[in-house]
């Protein structure tokens, strides 16, 4: 029965044999919705040509589903108005199953109803309703929309007839494509008389009826891109005239007033322009634009959500990386603190060791200075003795020459010792300077630790080199002491030789010249200091020695 009625309404030939063949093997009971859809698509919907009454088709679908889903207890609208709201829902709903009407289309529909009722649009009231709706779901089903309109929530203060007329007007515009309708006078083509007719303007046709119930249709004015409409001056006692020119006929029409005349001319001209451009009716074009805008916003929202997810994922990864870096930094800080602790401990130990070494070196240097002072005192006494012995005879010259060479060697050793002491003092000062620098490095900031560590290693190596140099100086000092002992032995030998010569001179000459205060005349200066005799005495002695030498020869 369902298939036969669908074929009848859609003007499709019914094929009972194909129906029996399709459901022959189905002996499991009633056919489900999913089981009937393949047959519906293949044998009925694919054969539809479009030359069927859409209102009758909607009424059949309404009959199938209204009894089960429509709630009649609280509705303030009739079944016919509920049917029209249902059809409008199917027109405005989204193209996906299950069908819903989104808040934007609900707002558009309610604005149309409010405008048709002649009331003011309450935007704030709808915003509250939209907020409550978005909290629970994406939109309304057909039956929820009927309940919303039938509850009178957005039509308070309006009677049922006004609401019904508004629904019918919106239905005519959106579903029946009625762009404008109303009573006007039409001039006949044969009798040339004026008759009142109910005109209905659609996207490609103007139909006129006897009355607004649309039962008795009197004719059509077919519109295309070649048609035009123009105003006419008043004539034959008729006012507000305008002319509709088509290819085969022209129609003279009289509106009730100038406002209606202008509205009709503008509506017909707009329709002709749409036909010329091949554009759909305004309400369908507006619906398509709203749908495209929603799709664009939805795509932008999905893209934004995708970017937000990517940002969130990247943020989580960054958080994980930061956590890993934080743990690594904590571990590195712990290791650095441990290494710093060890370094400070090593530094303290080195400082203690350097302090002990410095004390030891100070003691050694003090002892060396005492020994040098003592040796210097002895050397002064010895030099005084040598100056007294310079008054001896020529036979002491060789001994004096040996003594002079010994003194030169001793002077060389002394200078060497002085140089070694100066170098040792310089190294000591450098060691003390490095010690102070190491104390300053302890107070430096954490940011310079690595650089200070490198400097400390360099200074430690330099300190080791300095220690090696000190050891070398110590060896050289020991060698100088050994040379000094050798020189001392030579001096003792020279002194013994001098004493033996003194004995010989005393034996031969019978006297030893006593040491007397020197002359007030200028003294001679030798390599070892002021001489013990004057230049005149030296010349007298040379003459005496020469005379004795000549006598002996």
UniProtKB/TrEMBL annotation:
Gene Ontology CC: cytoplasm; lamellipodium; nucleus; plasma membrane
Coiled-coil regions listed: 283-504
UniProt function note: Phosphatidylinositol 3,4,5-trisphosphate-dependent guanine nucleotide exchange factor (GEF) which, independently of RAS, transduces signals from tyrosine kinase receptors to RAC. It also mediates signaling of membrane ruffling. Regulates the actin cytoskeleton as an effector or adapter protein in response to agonist stimulated phosphatidylinositol (3,4)-bisphosphate production and cell protrusion.
Gene Ontology MF annotations: DNA binding
Entries under CDD domains matching the protein: PH_SWAP-70
Protein name: Switch-associated protein 70
Database matches in InterPro entries: EF-hand_SWAP70_N, PH-like_dom_sf, PH_domain, PH_SWAP70
Name of the encoding gene: Swap70
Self-association and partners: The SWAP complex consists of NPM1, NCL, PARP1 and SWAP70.
Signal peptide: none
Domain of life according to the entry: Eukaryota
Keyword tags: Cell membrane, Cell projection, Coiled coil, Cytoplasm, DNA-binding, Membrane, Nucleus, Phosphoprotein
Subcellular location: Cell membrane; Cell projection, Lamellipodium; Cytoplasm; Nucleus
Xref: Gene3D superfamilies: Pleckstrin-homology domain (PH domain)/Phosphotyrosine-binding domain (PTB)
PH domain span: 177-273
């Amino acid at each position: 029965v369902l298939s036969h009625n669908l074929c009848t309404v859609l003007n499709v030939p019914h094929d009972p044999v194909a129906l029996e063949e399709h459901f022959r093997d189905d002996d499991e009971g009633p056919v489900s919705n999913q089981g009937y859809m393949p047959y519906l698509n293949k044998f009925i919907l694919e054969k539809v040509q479009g030359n069927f009454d859409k209102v009758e088709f909607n009424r059949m679908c309404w009959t199938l589903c209204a009894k089960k889903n429509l709630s009649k207890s609280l509705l303030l609208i009739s079944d016919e108005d509920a049917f029209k709201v249902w059809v409008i829902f199917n027109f405005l709903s989204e193209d996906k199953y299950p069908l819903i009407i989104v808040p934007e289309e609900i707002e558009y529909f309610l604005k149309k109803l409010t405008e048709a009722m002649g009331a003011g649009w309450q935007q704030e009231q709808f915003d509250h309703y939209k907020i409550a709706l978005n909290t629970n779901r994406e939109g309304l089903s057909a039956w929820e929309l009927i309940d919303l309109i039938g509850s009178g929530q957005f039509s308070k203060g309006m009677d049922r007839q006004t609401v019904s007329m508004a629904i019918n007007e919106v239905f005519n515009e959106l579903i029946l494509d009625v762009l404008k309708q109303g009573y006007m006078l039409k001039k006949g083509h044969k009798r040339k008389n004026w008759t009142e007719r109910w005109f209905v303007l659609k996207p490609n046709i103007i139909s006129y009826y006897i009355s607004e119930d649309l039962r008795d249709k009197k004719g059509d004015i077919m519109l295309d891109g070649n048609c035009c409409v123009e105003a006419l001056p008043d004539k034959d006692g008729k006012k507000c005239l305008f002319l509709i020119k088509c290819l085969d006929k022209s129609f003279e029409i009289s509106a009730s007033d100038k406002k209606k005349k202008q509205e009709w001319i503008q509506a017909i001209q707009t329709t002709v322009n749409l036909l010329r451009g091949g554009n759909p009716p305004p309400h369908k074009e507006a619906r398509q634009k709203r749908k495209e805008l929603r799709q664009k916003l939805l795509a932008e929202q999905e893209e934004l959500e995708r970017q937000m997810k990517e940002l969130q994922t990247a943020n989580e990864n960054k958080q994980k990386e930061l956590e890993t870096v934080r743990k690594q930094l904590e571990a590195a800080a712990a290791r650095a603190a441990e290494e710093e602790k060890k370094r400070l401990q090593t530094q303290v130990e080195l400082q203690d060791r350097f302090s002990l070494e410095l004390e030891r070196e100070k003691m050694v240097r003090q002892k060396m200075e005492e020994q040098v002072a003592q040796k210097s005192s002895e050397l002064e006494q010895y030099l005084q003795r040598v100056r007294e012995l310079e008054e001896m005879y020529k036979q002491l010259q060789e001994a004096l020459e040996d003594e002079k060479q010994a003194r030169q060697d001793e002077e060389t050793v002394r200078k060497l010792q002085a140089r070694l002491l100066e170098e040792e003092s310089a190294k000591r000062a450098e060691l003390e300077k490095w010690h102070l620098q190491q104390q300053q490095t302890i107070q430096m900031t954490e940011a310079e630790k690595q650089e200070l560590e490198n400097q400390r290693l360099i200074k430690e190596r330099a300190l080791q080199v300095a220690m090696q140099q000190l050891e070398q100086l110590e060896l050289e000092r020991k060698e100088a002491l050994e040379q000094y002992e050798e020189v001392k032995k030579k001096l003792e030998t020279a002194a013994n030789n001098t004493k033996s010569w003194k004995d010989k001179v005393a034996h031969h000459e019978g006297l030893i010249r006593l040491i007397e205060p020197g002359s007030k005349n200028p003294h001679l200066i030798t390599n070892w200091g002021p001489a013990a005799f004057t230049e005149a005495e030296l010349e007298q002695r040379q003459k005496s020695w020469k005379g004795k030498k000549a006598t002996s020869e």
